[in-house]
Design goal:
The protein is of the alpha/beta class. The chain is built from 6 helices and 13 strands. The protein has helices spanning 55-58, 78-83, 95-101, 112-124, 136-147, 254-263; strands at residues 29-31, 72-73, 75-77, 127-128, 163-168, 173-178, 181-188, 201-204, 207-213, 220-228, 231-235, 250-252, 269-273. The strands form 4 sheets. The protein has a 5-stranded mixed β-sheet, with helices on both faces. The two termini are 33 Å apart.
Length: 279
């Protein structure tokens, strides 16, 4: 039978998040290092048919991702990608945010000095190509680093005595906390794009399927943990650092999805808030 979406607890009030600044006319953003990424995984729209997996099925671990699948590949202007320049003069869509994070003069203008500092950060964090462009991958990395020690500093994820999986769509990070203790993450993730937004509010993990394959689109969804209809935490076999989001699910890198699989149990609560930039 088809299992309906889990009964939600009273929904928390969503906090409106500002959209990212417009990239400007020169920034037709493309992956700066061309690699054969798998096409964006089409997540299920409807709740899956649930059943109890056999011991033999549960013993099978999903296949590993290809080497380099999760590299930090920045999205840069097409002209910069083609020219393979060493330091860009282009103003990135996250110029002001990156300047502020790096404690540079916040004027939204790309200078030689700005490029040098941004490029040094990209080299240190292994972001490719390291050309000093303040793009979405660079800003996402900064968001993650800021959240690493205390992801719930803003107290947007409710503290409970039980486990809560926290999904912050504004910063594109997720973690699990029990009380004030973080028991998983934070890790970067990818939530729903415009038209396929990840639903906000309170949910429960209602089904776990380690080797799930979308019955609608026949795409692998390793370590799937469903919490709202067809929306689930699951791994993808390509970059989660794309300029568009998923089709509703919370996408993770395989290693992160595997660890989360061992942390969350059926019935655990999930709290989702905010909105993915651009969605």
């Amino acid at each position: 039978m088809l299992l309906a979406a889990a009964t939600a607890l009273p929904a928390a009030t969503a906090v409106a998040e500002p959209a990212p600044p417009a990239p400007g006319p020169e920034a037709q953003l493309v992956p700066g290092v061309y690699q054969p990424w798998q096409a964006d995984t089409p997540d299920q729209v409807l709740a899956p048919q649930v059943y109890v997996p056999s011991a033999a099925e549960e013993a099978v671990e999903p296949v590993e991702a290809a080497p380099g699948a999760y590299d930090l590949v920045e999205y840069v202007p097409l002209s910069d990608a083609v020219a393979r320049i060493s330091c860009t003069r282009s103003r990135g869509p996250y110029q002001r945010q990156v300047e502020r994070w790096l404690k540079l003069k916040v004027d939204g203008k790309q200078s030689k000095a700005d490029c040098k500092v941004i490029r040094a950060f990209q080299v240190r964090e292994k972001i490719k190509p390291a050309i000093g462009f303040a793009g979405p991958v660079t800003w996402s990395r900064m968001q993650y680093l800021s959240a690493r020690k205390n992801p719930n500093a803003a107290k947007k994820c409710p503290v409970r005595t039980y486990r809560v999986a926290c999904v912050d769509q504004a910063r594109q990070i997720t973690w699990v906390q029990k009380g004030k203790k973080v028991v998983f993450g934070p890790v970067p993730m990818r939530s729903g794009r415009a038209g396929y937004r990840t639903r906000t509010g309170w949910f429960k993990v209602y089904w776990k399927h380690k080797n799930h394959v979308s019955t609608l689109y026949h795409q692998p969804m390793p370590y799937a943990q469903f919490f709202s209809g067809g929306q689930a935490f699951h791994a993808v076999y390509g970059s989660i650092f794309t300029t568009v989001g998923s089709m509703g699910c919370v996408n993770l890198r395989l290693g992160d999805a595997r660890k989360l699989w061992g942390v969350l149990k059926k019935g655990d609560r999930v709290h989702v808030w905010g909105r993915r930039p651009g969605a």
